[in-house]
Design a protein that fits this description.
Chain lengths: 197, 197
DNA sequence: CACCGTAGCACTAACGGTTAGCCTTTTGAA
DNA sequence: TTCAAAAGGCTAACCGTTAGTGCTACGGTG
């Protein structure tokens, strides 16, 4: 196992951050579509190929928190207190995520995303990935009497809650309202699975 | 209003169909990524620009039934019998759609889609559009005591049901299972809205 | 019937994201 | 010190997509 001790990792992270910061700045200044990859690379003083070795595509420049997001969701399931039921734990995390991205400081970024079809599309497929990761985490929880289908369903619903609430006038109220519905769905799913086996 | 009487319309439809058929044939033969737009156009004996005047993008060549799909969903809501409740009507339509695309004849196409990330991504954003159209239809139904948020939520859940069921081993059972959950969510949403107003 | 507006289509050329191939420099470890 | 691998760079191309331009045939109107 080769442990990268220090400098290399730091330099790589610095390059990555420089690219992302530069890109975000240019995008916010002049719009996503009006800024080309070659321009971002030039401004960040790296080669185009270097940029693509750090980011899978142009859209990924805007969604850096991608993995954070996914980890927070799965950990809300796998890392909850032993006796805490699933749905409240999920609601807490979704609420935190919604708050995080409706905060004033994040507003310009989300305005950029909402106004750019390519970015909206990318975010949609990101959410799908997150839903799948979440479904796996839910299905793997030993204390939950859920079918595979029900696990996937609850995961989708939770991601829907995030996605819908983010766009509502009162995001926190929307989270509460949608999770009331998810809770009901959850109860039906668990009671059905218990009684049939 | 200029009614295109006959020949022009037929020629246009013929060109469109020829392009779509050619594209699908080539994609199925050699894979989506291995076939370029220029090649499809050449094989269909049209110019590249003509191809793009009929289809919004390469992915759209594979999803011809797009508008059908959306219309069937919204009509399941707006066109149901006056006394039929929403959820059973939705379930019926979703089940029909799932059956339609898990039929044997459709198998090669869905195999192609499932094996091509670009097409999966495209389908995801299609579904989102359909969910929004469905949400509008649900919100517009005069007999439903739903908040705007609840309408959007039910619409998303219904689309999730389609999307999830399509990939399950037993699609019809999955539709039944998921719609049991949606029904529970629905009841919570309606009862809350009735009691609070 | 002749005429004209327009829809459909073609062609060229380019733009922008992305990748392959190959080379140089830096870095960590033996 | 030496070496393998990682990081970065340069060039050139591929591919989807679009703008610009013009031609042709169709369908409605005088």
């Amino acid at each position: 196992m080769v442990v990268q001790s220090g400098r290399r990792e730091r330099k790589k992270a610095a390059t990555r951050k420089k690219i992302a910061d530069t890109a975000l700045r240019l995008f916010l200044e002049r719009g996503y579509d009006a800024v080309g990859i070659r321009e971002v690379a030039a401004e960040a003083d790296v080669a185009v190929t270097t940029l693509f070795s750090h980011f899978a595509g142009k859209e990924a420049l805007v969604f850096e928190q991608d993995e954070d997001f996914e980890q927070r969701l799965t950990q809300a399931v796998t890392g909850r207190a032993p006796d805490e039921p699933l749905i409240p734990a999920l609601r807490r995390e979704v609420l935190a995520l919604v708050r995080h991205c409706t905060a004033d400081e994040a507003a310009p970024i989300w305005h950029l995303i909402d106004g750019t079809p390519a970015l909206r599309k990318y975010e949609e497929s990101m959410r799908l990935r997150h839903a799948e990761a979440l479904a796996t985490a839910i299905a793997a929880a030993p204390d939950l009497p859920l079918t595979a289908t029900a696990s996937r369903t609850i995961a989708r619903f939770a991601i829907d809650a995030y996605s819908l609430a983010r766009e509502e006038a009162d995001p926190e109220a929307a989270v509460a309202e949608i999770f009331r519905m998810i809770e009901a769905a959850w109860e039906v799913a668990t009671s059905a699975s218990e009684s049939s086996e």
